[in-house]
Design brief:
Length: 709
């Protein structure tokens, strides 16, 4: 193993756990509306579920393949990392339980009450007992485990009622009641906001289900399985359809090795170890929670409440605004002939991009549309307009990534739908996910070919465009258009080594150019010239770029990093990273935009990108970074970055221990709320300007009429 300096880096997985604690901190924040606090607990829980399935699952695989493999940030083996993860997770469960108890207690003041069966009054008991026997009992499939009934496969993240039973011979047996997926996650009591979770109800009736046994012990449980399928170790038969191969791979995910066992009960019990041993898990992989194991019901619960209560206990509604840079009811393609356009989701609406796609699909002069799809909405207008373009006899090429984790089924469905309609479908590369966000439209106008290109930092997904902050760049710059055309040609030819004049494309040119631009700043610093690097991303793990940033800091380059999640560099260390400052923003919206800025003044280079600075992005995925060269747009992005760096409400600073700390400033600025206000004010100013222009035009026309008379 290469010798690394571990004095200014921290472990990726432990850094991620610190980030997820930041999500939990939002649930603890009393300035956040109550139902939003409940939603943050749900987000924290689903984040942790995916972390165990993917990251812990991956580390588990490494322990089987190479037990001596070491992390290049800390020198820890995979097993040592897992042990530290399990230890660091315990206090997170405890904090989650405390916050959940506090939030649900406060919700009782609004009559939103989660009940346990034993606290129900006689009327509620009668109602829910009848409900159980009529609607639930017929669907249950209880199982006992004995010599005639082998231990069943416990499905990943499925909730079970786990029991220890005694038969007539006083023999101890294990019993399981799987909670059917067809059942609702909770049952509301009539004409109230009160409810009981389905697992709590079945738990209460476990004795009735196992009516020929004595229930000695019972609890609620779920197993988390490794879901990190290594596609590189799965061979595709020559005559096998890639979509069919992916469907088979997804079926394997349900049966992979257990990685975590959760119990939801009032106290830990010696009988829990029986289940743990059946699953071949160590005791440090077992976690006790007093919070529901599955928190996905929160979304439906909130939606089931009356509108006035939702409005009182959630964030003030905000609708993405029309961009003040786009003239309504005018051709977007014609507007792009005059200037570039930059949209900032969710403050500005994705509808402008959808209008771009719709116009392209219906413009008789448009010849072709090419686009990459990674994650799209379940009901997607993007797919609708691509199908519309096919109907209008445009050449449509879609590179769809079937390996977008947990979106595989959705992407397989859309691949089949588009292909049946006549679209050319590409699937990328065997060992490289295509994570790029790029769309190019080719139009022929008066015998001249014009290319319109869109490049973004986020997915073509109408739902997440209201929840994630992302940039969407639209241009008719022909150099970028030529690169986009070349990109799709290379994707069709499985060529990773294409040449591009403007775009930086991973895995070949992105990392090398970022390092080159950092080197340029180092050279300036050595000559006592002004230097600055500002980078915004979701995660920073790429060891080569981390070392280069440390070298830049050592040479006096001022570096400001805005990193929402994993950050493996420790800032502020004297003589090592003292010129590096790291900020993180966790708020109402998920910070998702990736921006890389190098230099100062008119020589500043700014790129937006689909790529984080992670080895998986820079060397194992196909990613695109696009230069922003329009000075007005560069100023806007720089303004946005500087606003985020001033955030002292939802912003935190990473200290020299690698932990998040509050920022003490006098500004008291929430950057996300600030951007909401800016989007509204910019549109108001634009509309007023248009009204003034209209009034002036009418005055001019009136004067002309007077002169003629």
């Amino acid at each position: 193993m290469k010798e690394y300096n571990f004095t200014y880096t921290q472990n990726r997985e432990l850094s991620w756990l610190k980030f997820n604690k930041r999500v939990l901190d939002e649930a603890k924040d009393k300035t956040v509306p109550l139902l939003e606090r409940l939603r943050y607990i749900s987000i924290f829980t689903s984040n942790l579920d995916e972390f165990f399935m993917i990251r812990c699952g991956s580390l588990y695989d490494v322990t089987l393949i190479d037990s001596e493999d070491k992390d290049n940030k800390t020198g820890l083996t995979a097993q040592e990392q897992l042990d530290k993860i399990y230890k660091a997770t315990i206090p997170l469960y405890e904090q989650k339980d405390t916050i959940y108890k506090e939030v649900t207690s406060e919700l009782r003041r609004y009559d939103v009450i989660k009940h346990q069966f034993e606290e129900l009054n006689s009327v509620q008991r009668k109602y829910i007992t009848q409900y159980f026997y009529e609607n639930i009992a017929p669907l249950l499939s209880p199982q006992i485990i004995d010599s005639h009934h082998p231990f069943p496969h416990m499905i990943n993240k499925k909730i079970y009622i786990y029991t220890i039973l005694n038969d007539d011979n006083e023999e101890k047996l294990m019993g399981l009641i799987p909670i059917p997926a067809s059942l609702p996650r909770f049952i509301k009591f009539p004409k109230t906001y009160e409810y009981i979770l389905i697992e709590d109800l079945i738990f209460a009736f476990a004795e009735t289900v196992f009516n020929n046994y004595y229930v000695k012990y019972k609890t609620i449980t779920a197993v988390t399985r490794n879901a990190d399928i290594n596609l590189q170790n799965s061979s595709i038969d020559e005559d096998e359809d890639y979509r069919h191969f992916m469907k088979n791979i997804l079926n394997k995910r349900k049966r992979l090795a257990p990685i975590r066992l959760e119990f939801c009960t009032y106290k830990q019990h010696k009988y829990n170890k029986h289940l743990r041993k059946k699953l071949d898990l160590h005791k440090n992989q077992v976690f006790l929670t007093h919070t529901p194991i599955n928190m996905e019901y929160i979304h439906d619960l909130i939606n089931s409440l009356p509108k006035n209560l939702i409005n009182d206990l959630t964030f003030t509604p905000f609708e993405p605004q029309q961009s003040s840079e786009i003239k309504p009811k005018q051709s977007l393609l014609k507007q792009l002939n005059k200037r570039d356009i930059l949209l900032f989701y969710p403050y500005e609406t994705i509808n402008h991009f959808l209008e771009f796609l719709k116009e392209s699909a219906n413009d008789p002069e448009v010849l072709s549309i090419k686009i990459t799809l990674y994650r799209v909405a379940r009901s997607s207008s993007v797919i609708k307009y691509l199908l519309e373009a096919i109907e209008n006899e445009k050449d449509v090429t879609v590179l769809i990534e079937l390996r977008a984790r947990f979106d595989e089924k959705n992407n397989i469905h859309y691949a089949e739908l588009l292909e049946e309609a006549g679209c050319q479908i590409l699937y990328g590369f065997e060992n490289y996910k295509v994570h790029s966000k790029i769309c190019t439209v080719t139009k022929k106008h008066k015998d001249k070919i014009i290319q319109y290109t869109q490049i973004g930092t986020g997915n073509y997904n109408e739902k997440t465009a209201k929840q994630y902050t992302d940039y969407c760049y639209l241009t008719s710059n022909q150099d970028i258009g030529d690169d986009a055309t070349e990109f799709f040609k290379n994707m069709g030819l499985s060529n990773l080594n294409g040449h591009y004049n403007k775009l930086l494309v991973a895995p070949t040119s992105l990392r090398d150019n970022i390092i080159k631009y950092i080197d340029e700043e180092i050279l300036k610093a050595q000559k006592d010239q002004p230097t600055e690097i500002i980078m915004k991303m979701n995660s920073l793990t790429d060891r080569k770029i981390i070392d280069k940033l440390q070298e830049a800091s050592e040479n006096g380059v001022k570096i400001k990093l805005i990193i929402r999640g994993i950050c493996c560099i420790i800032p502020g260390l004297p003589s090592k990273t003292e010129n590096i400052e790291v900020r993180s923003i966790v708020g109402r919206y998920l910070e998702h935009a990736r921006v890389y800025s190098f230099g100062t003044g008119e020589n500043r280079k700014i790129y937006i990108s689909s790529a984080d600075i992670m080895t998986r992005n820079t060397k194992k995925r196909v990613e695109v970074a696009c230069p922003i060269e329009d000075e007005k747009l560069k100023e806007r992005i720089l303004h946005d970055l500087n606003t985020m760096l001033k955030d002292d409400i939802k912003g935190r600073r990473i200290n020299t221990d690698g932990d998040y700390e509050y920022i003490e400033q006098a500004r008291h600025l929430n950057s996300q709320e600030h951007f909401q206000e800016e989007a509204i004010n910019n549109l108001v100013t634009f509309n007023e300007s248009q009204q003034n222009k209209s009034i002036i035009q009418k005055i001019i026309e009136y004067i002309k009429e007077l002169i003629i008379k």
